[in-house]
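Researcher: Here's the sequence for the chain we discussed earlier.
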Amino acid sequence: MTALSELPSARAILMDVTPRALLRLAGRSVPDAYARSLSRFRYGNGVAKVDFALSGPVPWSNPGLAGAGTVHVGGTRAQIASAEHDVALGRHSASQYVLVSQPSIVDGSRAPAGRHVLWTYTHVPRGSTVDQQEAITRQIERFAPGFRDVVLAASSRTAEDVERYDPNYVLGDIASGTPSIGQLLRRPVFSPDPWRTAIPGVYLASASTPPGPGVTGLNGWYAALSALRHEFGVRALPNLSIG
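Model: Thanks. This is the structure I predict for it:
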């Protein structure tokens, strides 16, 4: 889809996109004042992603990590804070904070028998074009000596590549907008019902709305409640229980 007008007629449209994408898709149907507000929405720093195919499990030096679905790799609290501070200042850290997911540890169907997959990403300055495969490999190797020896293949994406993969990740920002205090109150605009846009029948349901990133599902839940109330006159909370 390249324009909102391509969608079939509907009483309510819920869009899981950023304000930038809404402006692009809706075009001239966005009222000027609302468009100006959306254009002021700020995006945060990005991520660079590397996925690995492994011949065996990660050889963590701490055996307690072997069964963890997610591992935050970065050293001491001070070292992690320093790495994140570098990114906040717009520079690449010399010792990255790496988010690591080991899905095949808990779900063997994610990889061929006897093999494993590893999903990782690290924070980088917005729009970065720097490939982080070696940096991430080096940081994991620091806590899992011999990691390089179990790597069969890797797929790497810069922050620029991440946006190319999904335009909602503006400049590589997977949080769909910087989660500053100001933007948690004005997300994407200051309103008692920020999910309801100024375009009749159109609602924003993405992480660019409250309660912001990391609270999976609630953005869409609140957008749906707003649409039910305004478009269908339904004010009672729907019962989503089974049976």
